[in-house]
Amino acid sequence: MTLDIGAKAPDFRLPGDAGREIGLSDFAGRKLVLYFYPKDDTSGCTQEAIDFNRLKGAFAAAGTEIVGVSPDSAKSHDKFKAKHGLDIALAADESTSMLGAYGVWAEKSMYGRKYMGVERTTFLIGPDGKVAQVWRKVKVPGHAEEVLAAAQAL
Fold first, then answer.
1. Which residue from 10, 41, 115, 152 could staple onto 62, CB 3.0 to 4.6 Å apart?
2. 111 within domain boundaries
């Protein structure tokens, strides 16, 4: 299943870092960057988180919140945030149900072995709760800046 521009963003409520819950309804009437990444504390995922974190003020000025989602636990997210000084929200989807709803839980392949994992994808959700932009199979360098430009234009 793929989620396309103009589609209503699937609702969710997930455990987040610092013992809080994070849900789509928490951002009603505001823009939201929902970025999906494979694993805490791996090189690409760390760089992506640092890039979004660095631009958090500019996103806020554009009326946009940021939430990162991976299948790691909330406890893992807390360690990841502390280690890298991150101030963005991270949500834990250990069941992968939300990852499935957004169409980012996919079959991947490494060294000829097939497995299920997160396809690095970012959604920009408008204040109306609809998908305004989608970036699939994201390459990390320059990605956060590209998403910021789209949020500023929305």
1. 152
2. yes
Q: 0.90 exceeded by the pTM? A: yes
Q: Token pair of 58, please? A: 């500019």
Going edge to edge, which strands form the sheet with 31-36? 89-92, 64-70, 31-36, 121-125, 131-135
Beta carbons of 55 and 33 less than 8 angstroms apart: no
Query: Strand 13-15 relative to strand 21-23: parallel, antiparallel, unpaired?
Result: antiparallel
Two structure tokens written together for 124? 């920009």
Handedness of CA 17, 45, 68, 145 (dihedral sign): positive
90 lies in some domain: yes
Could you read off the pLDDT of 68-121 as tens digits, one per residue?
999 999 999 999 999 999 999 999 999 999 999 999 999 988 899 999 999 999
Closest by CA position to 128, among listed 31, 20, 46:
31
Q: What's the CA angle centered on 143, arms 126 and 2, to 5 degrees?
A: 55
For residue 18, give the amino acid letter.
A
**How many domains would you assign to the chain?**
1
Residue 66 sits in a domain whose CATH number is 3.40.30.10
Q: Is residue 55 part of a domain?
A: yes
Instruction: Please indicate whether residue 45 is annotated as part of the active site.
Output: yes
Amino acid of residue 50 = I
